[in-house]
Design goal:
This protein is of the alpha/beta class. The protein binds ribose-5-phosphate.
């Protein structure tokens, strides 16, 4: 058995040396097949290599959470501002107009509700249905360190295998249990495990200390998870830092749809992600657009 990270020698992440991406704009994707590259190019803008993904899949374990009570009324109009939408097949089929051509990142895991142990998930969609729904990517939670860690990792490897069969990339979401330490060491571990076991992209949380070591040591693109609602300027700052520290985009939910001005927030996030707009300027833009929304 190899050592479990007990080497005394300092680790070297070469954080300032970008990973080469020969022949294709996305990290770790050069050897993928045409269909998979094409789908990834729908999610990530090939000009910037980045994405603004809009996460509205919370209902799969939380029910109608604040802001998602009426997706038809308040959320569908926001989808037009996103580069990709992350949601369940139930909401997609019942509520999203098929004429909306945004790439779909389809939630494929589920099982426990907020009332139970969340890591006890199973795969909850057949690959055939993901194909029917024209999914650009499939996604699930991976609970590294969680009670059902092995099950969720196995769910991921099965989903990756299904996706490989049809050229659909898998996005692994690193789910952090309530009692777990959210530090660079944990996220390096979780993200790297997801990539090593085949995920073509990983969604994870931003942390102020050592985020660059997480993006540097993960051989596939990382998109930043939004997390609970914080002040708009703080959310823009977090997104800015994540991008500057190597994230290939964001996948945000509550910090957009629970904002006082969700359309304005979405547009400000876009500027931060695709144009490297500084947080203060993006916040000013948010305020201007917010006043126009009124
Ligand atoms: C799993 O927990 C999910 O994918 C979430 O529903 C989503 O990531 C939440 O997005 P946010 O934290 O930005 O509201």
């Amino acid at each position: 058995m190899p050592d479990i990270d007990v080497a005394t020698q300092a680790k070297k992440f070469y954080e300032d040396v970008p990973t080469e991406t020969p022949g294709f704009f996305l990290k770790g994707a050069s050897a993928l097949d045409w269909g998979m590259k094409n789908r990834l190019s729908r999610i990530f803008n090939p000009k910037t290599g980045r994405t603004v993904m809009f996460a509205i899949d919370h209902g799969y374990f939380q029910g109608p959470t604040t802001g998602l009570e009426r997706i038809d009324l308040t959320i569908v109009p926001l989808m037009y501002y996103a580069d990709a939408i992350m949601l369940t097949r139930g909401i997609l089929r019942t509520t999203v107009p098929p004429a909306l051509t945004k790439p779909v990142v389809l939630r494929c895991s589920g099982g426990p509700s907020v009332l139970k142990e969340l890591s006890n998930e199973e795969l909850a969609v057949d690959i055939e249905d993901a194909i029917r729904l024209n999914a650009a990517a499939i996604t699930l939670q991976v609970f590294i360190g969680g009670e059902f860690e092995t099950r969720s990792v196995h769910n991921m490897t099965r989903l990756v295998d299904m996706g490989m069969r049809y050229g659909i990339p898998t996005m692994a979401v690193t789910a952090v249990g309530k009692d777990m330490v959210r530090d660079a060491r944990y996220f390096r571990l979780a993200c790297r495990i997801c990539a090593e076991l085949g995920a073509q992209l990983v969604k994870t949380y931003y942390i102020p200390e050592g985020f660059k070591t997480i993006t540097a040591s993960c051989p596939v693109p990382i998109v930043m998870a939004g997390g609970k609602k914080i002040a708009e300027l703080d959310a823009l700052t977090m997104a800015y830092k994540a991008i500057q520290e190597g994230a290939s985009g964001v996948d945000m939910g509550r910090n957009i749809f629970q904002s006082d001005a969700p359309e304005a927030m979405m547009q400000a996030i876009h500027k931060v992600v695709h144009e490297d707009m500084k947080p203060a300027e993006a916040y000013e833009l948010y305020e201007t657009l917010k006043n126009q929304e009124k």
